[in-house]
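Extended Data, record ADP-ribosylation factor-like protein 15
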Amino acid sequence: MLDYCFRTLCCKGPPPPRPEYDVVCIGLTGSGKTSLLSRLCSEATDNIVPTTGFSIKAVPFQNAILNVKELGGADSIKKYWSRYYQGSQGVVFVLDSASSEEDLEMARTELHSALQHPQLCTLPFLILANHQDKPAARSVQEIKKYFELEPLARGKSWILEGSTVDSMDMVKESFSQLIHLLEEKDHEIGRI
């Protein structure tokens, strides 16, 4: 009996590995992609500069690891985004909810393109309306209406949430919802 208890308690072995998902993160320059991802990885956000090209971060969560490929949002880089979509299992789109009308329209156009892109259109989307802490920020409901998400994303897996680097609990919860959608998609593929 003692031998059984010892083996049960001490010889379990390492915990099973967490699943890993490859996610692409896109959005215009200044939307806050790098700041949000850096905070999720507990990195300093003091000297963040706009991403030129792309960067990859392994973002650990309790039940999964997201390998996030963040693509720079400058005009000179956006035209190459689609070259980095292959192999993605999910999409994070970050927009500045306090941006000018012109930038918001540009973000809307880019999101619509991503939602309809052949390599992304079947993937789960997490759309973060960032900078909710700024006075000019539009609410999540305003963003949802302005971006015409209901008709455009009908039949797709997507989440729209507000975010700010000052409330990482809210951001972590949003990413947890994305992980749930990724797990569901994984199970669907496994059943085929």
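Summary. The chain has one domain: 20-190.
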